[in-house]
Amino acid sequence: MVFSDLFFLFVFLPVFALSYLLAAWVDRRNTMHSFRHRNSMLVLFSLVFYAWGEPVYVLLMLASVVVNYFVGRGIAKKGKPFLVLGLVFNLGVLATFKYLSFFCAELLSLGIPVSVPKIALPIGISFYTFQSISYLIDVYRGTTPVQRNFKNLLLYISMFPQLIAGPIVRYGTIAKEITDRHVDSNDFAEGMMRFLRGLGKKVILANQLSEISSQLLTGSGLENLSTVGSWVGIVAFTFQIYFDFSGYSDMAIGMGRCMGFHFNENFDHPYCCVSITDFWRRWHISLGSFFRDYLYIPLGGNRRHQALNILIVWMLTGFWHGASWNFLLWGVFYGIIVMIEKYTLLKVIKRIPKVLLHVYSLLLVVIGWGIFYFDDFGQMKHFFHAFFGRAEAFSDFAAVNTLSSYGWLWVVAILFCMPLRDWVNRWVAGWKQPRPALVLVARSVLAFLLLAASVALLVGATNNAFLYTRF
Asked: CA-to-CA distance for 446 and 438, rounded, in angstroms?
């Protein structure tokens, strides 16, 4: 089940909302500050949500929560030995389900006689494993209290809005809100608007862009791909992956807000960057901060072996995205660029016109998505051969027709990569007299249009999966 699914929108979500409101009524009848029944309802629906697509692997997630619950309590009493145990368990589970088949296949290709196990990748295992690791480390560091209520820890790890594709929420971010949160009409309105904005990003933009990227970058036609076709295809994917993943994050943050949870932002207009370092401060912020706080700084950070630390972090960042050599190459690509920038560009960045920095950054980002897209190095070779200029096939009718036919999509995609909402808010704030009624009407109309357009496009849609559910 995914958020941009008609069943989720018109069956699961309404049933959950009614059940949650009933639980809230029961809580208030018992005591004003109780969240017992609301939390129980959220846990129940989260397990149903996950089991809907992973009926077997929901048991794996539950087992993970059980182990981390007892390990967390062990850390509170005995410290480091239990932390090591927790890290070995979590990383071992992740390695087994995500990487074991890949490495066995690589060994077999080298002539080493090993059997290759057929292990399906549990949805969201990378996200909930990293949340568990962050919880254990923070308990060990003393920056967050150990959770002694099993149901509350289960709620933190299994909460369906952010369960399968993030953002990676640290326990300390929502620890107090698990047992004491408040939702007013403004929170609910902001949460719903955020959810619908994310739905629009996914359905209206990302799904349409995926048709372009898959049409031009998939299949045997890559050998004859023109330069124009390669650029149109990879730029479409560049927009697609942003609207797909940031759309999911918006929907998760919005649903959390409706229930009183305040998840951290995961994107900050990354394509407005002026360097690759700046890009990674804005893209998948929760993953970047995880590697910074739990790997880069413990390795020594900027104090010692900085270049090596950067390379290690980026190799693992790439490999976290999938069991394929192209992801490792993608990580190394960015690690090298970040190192070069740290010792050169960032020292003179104020002297360079921003437009040049912006063009430089976006060109490298697009090249990076080219590495990310192709897990077959033969296909990647054909793509980059075309991308950097193939004299015999600079352009073709299909590529030009695709570029011109989707004119509206390119314009809207570019606009919504910019901080339009911030601009509109500043414009509204500059009015001489407040017009709350007009703002309310405008937001209501926008919400209705986003929902109506998304539903219309979802009817009969064949390509609607979120990209990051694979990771």
From this structure: 12
> What local confidence, expressed as pLDDT, does residue 218 receive?
84
Amino acid occupying residue 409: L
Look up residue 116 and give its amino acid.
V
- The Cα–Cα gap between 71 and 78 comes to 10
- CB-based contact 370:232 (threshold 8 Å): no
Distance CA 384, CA 468 (A): 24
**Do the Cβ atoms of 220 and 379 come closer than 8 Å?**
no
- Indicate the domain borders of the chain: 6-181, 187-458
Q: Give CA–CA dist 319/295, Å, rounded.
A: 14
Told to judge if 321 belongs to the known catalytic residues of this protein, a careful annotator would answer yes
Question: Would you give the end-to-end CA distance of the chain in angstroms?
Answer: 16
117 burial level (CB within 10 Å; 0-12, 13-18, 19+): exposed
Query: For residue 82, which amino acid is it?
Result: F
Structure tokens at 175: 């620890």
Q: Which two tokens stand for residue 153?
A: 């820890």
Instruction: Give the C-alpha separation, 194 to 192, whole Å.
Output: 5
pLDDT at 293: 95
Characterise 374 by phi-psi region: left (phi > 0), alpha (psi -120 to 50), beta (else): beta
Residue type, 25: W
Average pLDDT over residues 378-388: 91
Mean per-residue pLDDT over the chain, rounded:
90
Residue 189 structure tokens: 């309105």
Catalytic residue (choose from 321, 358, 382, 385): 321
Given a contact cutoff of 8 angstroms between Cβ atoms, the answer to whether 41 and 20 are in contact is yes
Query: CA angle, corner 158, sides to 248 and 283, nearest 5?
Result: 35
**pLDDT tens-digit profile of 37-51?**
999 999 999 999 999
DSSP 415: H
**CB-based contact 338:276 (threshold 8 Å):** yes
